[in-house]
């Protein structure tokens, strides 16, 4: 099934060589053909993540990709064509996707062809534009919560809580009935996680003795687990608040990797995009108001500026507007 208005070529941001932000340029490329198990999405917006910078540098290049490469793992838009084996998505559906495997190119383009298993209908309560920045971080946050496997009423500490993954993890954890201590970056970060429902919001740049004292006041029996979106000496100190045998879970890519120590269990996790996880994510999102906090939006023509912004500090996510 195909929307008859699909053109033959599209505007895309792509690169022909690996390097810094300067290698990405706008050009006209053919619209990718859709296989039987894929959908073609007319892109409304695309998330900008550190993994996109790694791809640009040649570190995380999707298998099967050929130059010129169109980056972008996260995106949202409207289905304009569906392969004959696709049964749960139709032309006109508003969707979002997380596609780390995408040999035909990513979401830094007007159109993207993606396997239907990585695509979900947009849940109620999330603006379509903002959904473009949501999927990979939200699925990774959900995987982190699965990894710590806590029960309602347990105390969870989220370190790096105002970042892209962290601010979504705060909301998903609250939907699972957890008590959340959010350690964020700066006053703006603290204000964000407070607004998103954290039970205790703390500035990780503050005095760590005071931060630990406030954590222990809130959870005198100890914190059951830490979701670590960052690492280093601050995280090392925060593990003092864990119960004996408490878990530190971190997403692959966090450096330096948290280290095992007596009384602390360390586990790594990765986000998974499949129909089951996407359904679970949508059910949690639709349980109440859900915010994808966008720090800054860039038009597709300003993609280099967006990648430069990746190298700075900000709360939430960066977004490319396409459609």
From TrEMBL:
Q: What keywords sit in the KW lines? A: Acetylation, Cytoplasm, NADP, RNA-binding
- Supply the InterPro entries for this chain: ADH-like_C (IPR013149), ADH-like_N (IPR013154), ER (IPR020843), GroES-like_sf (IPR011032), NAD(P)-bd_dom_sf (IPR036291), Quin_OxRdtase/zeta-crystal_CS (IPR002364), Zinc-ADH_QOR/CCCR (IPR051603)
Compartments annotated for it: namely: Cytoplasm
Xref: SMART domains: PKS_ER (SM00829)
Q: Which cellular component terms (GO) are annotated to the entry?
A: cytoplasm
Molecular function (Gene Ontology), one example? zinc ion binding
Signal peptide interval: none
Q: Which residues form the Enoyl reductase (ER) domain?
A: 19-320
Superkingdom of the organism of origin: Bacteria
Q: What is the predominant subcellular site recorded for this chain?
A: cytoplasm
Q: Which PANTHER family has this protein been placed in?
A: QUINONE OXIDOREDUCTASE
| Oligomer and partners | Homotetramer.
Q: What is this protein called?
A: NADPH:quinone reductase-like Zn-dependent oxidoreductase
